[in-house]
Amino acid sequence: MPHPKRILLIGNYEADRQYSMLRYADWLVGALRTTGWHADLLAPAPHLSRPAMRSRTARKWLGFIDKFVLFPLRLRRLAARYDLIHVCDHSNAPYVFALSGHRVSLTCHDLIPIKVLAGEVRGQRLSGTNAWLQRMIRVSLRHVPNLVFVSDATRADFVRLIGPVTGGDGVIANPVIGFGTMTPARARQLIDAAGVPADRPFLLHIGSNLWYKNRPGALQLFDLLRQTHIAGLRDALMVSVGPPLPDSMQAAPEGLIVISEADNGLIEALYTQAEALLFPSLDEGFGWPIIEAQACGCPVITSDREPMRSIAGPAALLIDPGRLDQAAQLIAERWDWLTAQKQAARDHARQFSERAAAARYSDFLTELAGRAAPAGSLQ
After folding, report:
1. What domains does the chain contain, in order, with CATH numbers?
2. Which among 144, 179, 229, 285 could disulfide-bond with 109, CB atoms 3.0 to 4.6 Å apart, if both were Cys?
3. Where do the H-state alpha helices sit in the chain?
């Protein structure tokens, strides 16, 4: 079979505001074009659901119709024009049922909700609607033979929770997308405009209020670090990029600045100027902020768990996110070492280049295209 040139990438529903997945799909379509593929990106459109709707319940259910009723009809019509179909996010695995007879692959980023569904996470449960959705995703993933995983940890989770991979598979780490080139002067301008005082050092956390992001742990760790004898941190601020704190976290430490709306430019500026990134996550499929921060020369403190341990590499300081008192003590003891790792962090982040990831995706898809498959299957 000759090398196919036409591939359709399936992206995410923009109204769901999954910004990292939207950015990832935009990157992948551009990356494949640079390696010789004719690549197009298709995503469900918000025909029925509208952001202006007052009822969140109505938006959610109309969004389900947009995504799982209307979009598959359009996808089925358009898929015949392409040699390959690649689903950019495993949460869109149910679309495979509209693609029977086509050669399909998928990128699996994490299976954290399915871990909860399987009862692997103590104290966490899924709501009725979310449990239904995750069951549908889990069933759908069993019908996808060809998979890319963003980390070895995600691949191991898949084999344990879903089953063995039946077709082609590979681990392709996420790349650093567009971070690491901002000058300190430009970074300072953006930070000033965001209202972060120029005369105060700050620690940085990036993450939502989801349990595994461990935002309360990051804030508690910041509070503990201010009580240590680390030079310059007793007067430090904490910048937390994410949604507003929930009511359960309103007793926030002194010196906290929450930035709920931050574009990539401001995030890069914060990486560039922060004393360190606090990323005590309890679970991840990959952990993008780790390598983004390192690309900007920002020291990283993250969890001594996979995949964070492997992604962060030797230039990061690893802690136990369940023992924050000990973590604060370790950080205080190794602070001078950590702040001397800025260039080592940049060097490590270069392993996650866009060019290398694009080449690996192109190789994976080329190999998939050349493999024989039974007629009528998801190939």
Report:
1. 6-175+354-369 (3.40.50.2000), 184-351 (3.40.50.2000)
2. 285
3. 19-34, 56-65, 71-79, 112-117, 128-141, 152-161, 184-193, 215-226, 264-273, 288-295, 308-312, 324-339, 342-349, 354-369
